[in-house]
Design goal:
The chain is α+β, with helices and mostly antiparallel strands. Helix content is 26%, strand content 42%.
């Protein structure tokens, strides 16, 4: 019986430790002071925060289009009379902002049939500001109002 209880206690500790690691990889994202919620949690990979594409593009006012033929997401936004177009292809290290090629340090990727994009690149390519709050494991997005 003591061995069984010891095994249960060990399993509980391992579960708690793995849950803490998983939570550590899920940063919070704030847009103009409001915490964003996602149907699939953002995560960090290679020191880059990846978020579900549609949620982040639409949150900063872009319209999203998906091209099944070449697995490319296109986001279009009009702000202050200026049109911005951002295109990212899954697994490509090159994106296009208003037709100009930009080298990515983290490409868009598919995870469990969901498209994740590098948050900083997406937001900054649309002219908005991104900061990292390491103390609170949070990304802070500020849009010009």
């Amino acid at each position: 019986m003591k061995k069984f209880i010891a095994m249960l206690a060990t399993a509980a500790m391992l579960f708690t430790a793995s849950a803490a690691v998983a939570a550590d990889n899920e940063p919070s994202v704030y847009l103009n002071g409001e915490r964003m919620t996602f149907d699939v949690n953002p995560f960090i990979e290679n020191d880059r925060t990846l978020v579900p594409m549609r949620a982040i593009f639409e949150a900063v006012g872009a319209v999203v289009q998906w091209d099944d033929d070449d697995d490319t997401v296109h986001a279009i936004r009009e702000k202050d009379g200026e049109l911005s177009l951002v295109s990212l292809q899954i697994n490509s290290d090159t994106a296009f902002v208003n037709g100009e090629a930009v080298l990515l340090d983290m490409p868009a990727k598919l995870v469990n049939d969901r498209t994740f994009v590098p948050l900083r690149f997406v937001v900054e390519s649309l002219g908005e500001k991104v900061d990292w709050d390491g103390d609170n494991y949070s990304v802070i997005i500020t849009t010009a109002e």
